[in-house]
Design a protein that fits this description.
InterPro entries: LSM_dom_sf (IPR010920), MS_channel_C (IPR049278), MscS-like_channel (IPR052702), MscS_beta-dom_sf (IPR023408), MscS_channel_2nd (IPR006685), MscS_channel_C_sf (IPR011066), MscS_channel_TM-2 (IPR011014)
Number of helices: 26
Structural class: alpha+beta
Number of strands: 10
Shape: flat
Strand content: 5-15%
GO molecular function: mechanosensitive monoatomic ion channel activity
Distance between the termini: 151 Å
Radius of gyration: 48 Å
Pfam families: MS_channel_2nd, MS_channel_3rd
Strand order of the largest sheet: 6-5-4-3-7
Largest sheet: 5 strands, antiparallel
Subcellular location: Cell membrane
Helix content: 55-70%
Main location: membrane
Length: about 800
Amino acid sequence: MIKTTRYLLVLFYCLLAGIPLYAQKTDSVPKKSASDSIKIDFVTKMQRFAKASAKKSSDEFMADKATLAQNRIFEEIKKTMQKARIYLKSGVDTVGTKVQLAEIEKELVIAGDGVLTKKGTAQTFRNLTATSKIIAELYNKMEARKTKLDFHQQELNTFRYRFDSLLSVPALFKFPADSATLSKYLQQIIVVAREIDPVDSSLKQASKNVQTLLNKVNTEAFKLQNGLEEIELYQKDMAENTLNREFDNIWGAVGYYRPFGEILAQAKAKGLLTLLFYVQNNSGKLIILLLLILTSFAYLQSLKNIYVEKKLLENDFEGQLVLKHPLLSAILIVLNLFQFIFFSPPFILSVIFWTIDCICLSILFKNFITRYWINVWLIMVALFIIAAFDNLLLQATRTERWIMLVISILGSVTGVIVIWKGRINELREKWILISIGFMAVLELLATLANMFGRYNLSKTLLISGYLNVVIAILFLWTVRLINEGLFLAFNVYTRQDKKLFYLNFEKVGKKAPPFFYVLLVIGWLILFGRNYAGFEFVSKPLREFFSRERTLGDYTFSINNLMLFITIMAVSVVISKIVSYFASDNHLGVDKDGKDGTRGIGSWLLLVRISILSIGLFLAIAAAGIPMDRITIVLGALGVGIGFGLQTLVNNLVSGLIIAFEKPVNVGDVVDVDGQGGTMKSIGFRSSVIATWEGADVVMPNGDLLNSHLINWSLGGNRKRISIVIGIAYDSNLEKAKQLLNEILNADDRISKSQGPVVQYEQFNNSSIDVRIYFWAKNMKDSFATRSDLIIAITSAFRVNGITIPFPQQDVYLHHPDKDKGEIN
């Protein structure tokens, strides 16, 4: 464009310069006609020149534009090639996918054994349940792998589509007119094509490999889904026909035979597989369970240490069984209470939990209950463990049916003998007899059902009978241990704020709150009901109701998420209150320096509580899945509310944070606020409590506390300077008086010697010479008593040494002039 413009200007100048010469050569022509010819020829030439220049300028502009577009496209192609190469290197793990597919196929064979293959005469409830859990886990793995492969395939197609779209841009096909430039451009296209070709081939091959894997994954997922649907039909049929016969009578002919060793191997393989999958999916919950056990153990151990120090621990642990073995008590309590955080656990995991609980309780029972009831408990535990291991067998055999018959008969006989003998007076928990009687009935029904071919019903009744009595005993003693823990804690932690837990402390320890027994019954029903085929179909709609997503405006939520949010926040509040309650209690006594042992802890309580609540809030928001933009809206609404009417509340809350971080005052400090003296009892979020010298508690908002002229005597080391003014008679020996005062002050141990006392004569008063004594009391709590004792000692010493402390007096002289004159006359 610039060259064309210059050329146009030069040409236009030359044309203008040639006009006079042309006019001189044509003088012979008539003037009028010559002028017209020159004008016509000039206009024509200028028009032709303008058209040619415009066309050339347009062509150059379009060529420059095409060049810019081509360079930009080549740059985009290079960037896309670089990204494609990087993605191909870090793409999906096809080898890992193939290995996982092989593992899933192998595990599907294990899971389908006895249900999808080698079905036998009839299906069993335990086999269907275990197989369903394994196949559901395998299906979830397949779906996760399918999602990754779909995403990878989409990315590969995106790169290929990007190449196709870049290579089909029309600007690439606008070739330069100049042959040299065209040759260079064609060479550039050839180079780009050679670079794209291997990348495009790799993308095609990767896409083909991924598609092959996707086909295999889809096929495997289809097989897994069909298996789940088939199992669901079996389970539904079993739930509807619970009382129907599955096999012949126990003494009848065998319809299908499979070696007992194969049955054991199958049960072992499926049990370990379900346990492995469940532990992998719930490792976080298991870690939380372990942390809860350690926390409970630390608390119970500290409680036991307090009882040992105060010599309150009984030799037989009567009413103190929870302190006998704190670790075992913590394991028993936590496993029994928090096993319900595991939704639909495999039976083998529940058996592990219950076995650990039984071992812990057996050790706690040693030398605590009578020998007879220990033997009864151990027999029940042994029968339960045998029945539990039998319940882990998944496919029915005639051998197992005979074993079940023996176990159920033993249970019935044992239950009848225990009830017949009685010995109720030795029982510490009378409800145990009810569960033992119920066990005897269930085992009798299991015996009859087994004999007459109702295998699934018999097996369910068999494990339910023993599980009923073991779980009942475990839960009853768990309630008892919790009750003892509360009672023992409230005996040594003396600051019993009834608003803290809403418990009647006078009744704790005598009888457990009914609420505990309500929870016990609910937990017992859940654990008992899991053994029945119909339980899944009863609980499934309830689970779906709580887990179903609901929409409110733009926000999607479920009842489970809301309950989780409320639960986490409630637990955070309770934990913060427990920490505040126990940490600030005066059972800690005094330290080696004679100072309050709670003061150092109490000063940090507000920060600890804020931290606990903040962590709880963030965990609750994360667990409930509440989007952060909604939190922003809520904070904005709170900002409006603060602007209109919550200034005072926010001021007090912020002041509480300032007190927590700056610590102008701590719990246990001796303070004076606007003439109101006392000790800081607590520092809360909104307000603080000052225990006055008169015995009343003053609740002061944190904002007022910061804005007042706060005097903190404890910041100076709990010292206080005291002064005493004494008047000495004019005729007294001042040096002797000063010596006596110094001796008295130095003899008192409550007076600081680092900043020694000072005795100064101040002024001549009307009746005496005033002397002022200054001294520092080591502890301000002793200041008034020290001052009183010094006054007594000084008075006594002055009296012995003849130093008078005069009292104010005035002499009056009477003068009578008239009377005096009369006497002279």
